[in-house]
Fold:
Amino acid sequence: KPTNKTPPASPTINAVTNDNVINASESSTGIIVTGTNEANSTTTLNGHAVSQYDATNWYYLLSSAEIAALGQGQTTLTAISKDAAGNISIGSKTILIDTVTTAMVNTIAGDDVINATERDASITITGSNESGATVTVNNQAATVTGTTWSYTLSSAAIKAMNQGNNTLTIKATDPVGNSTTTTKTIQVDTQAGIQPPIVTGK
Structure:
């Protein structure tokens, strides 16, 4: 009896998300991966059995936990189809998992304290970011150059702050939509201390 040694048609994996990049928002809900297969073959994705829309189209929910287990950076999804005779064929898709971004802010005015002289001259705040990210400081756009950012805190803005502790909120959003927020507490001390009266003897 002749033996079928012809493998099935290679399974395909369609684009994963619109750009083959999974960001934090997409990872949090999981991703439905889809593809095609030869009729009457069984298909797995990364070792997991897929479900079939119909005889030649399959889908698989790649869960948040599975995405996290794949790690950051480029990774390969592998689909394997097997026919009734046990012949197999393989298809793959390279995707990028990018679910994190970073932003840092440097010490402000040398000691995170703004005095009257510094207030009058304005203060430049600086920090670092992922390449291609946008950065805001208290919802105002910072200037980004490569992996560094800067923002001028004007004299008027400082005058509008309270004496004592104030919080700056820095938000960075990377090119694939991941965002992170960090805060910096600064102290505004622009008023001279009030000296107690000198008490003299009668």
Notes: The helical segments are 24-29, 64-70, 116-121, 155-159. The chain has a mean pLDDT of 93. The longest strand covers residues 73-82.
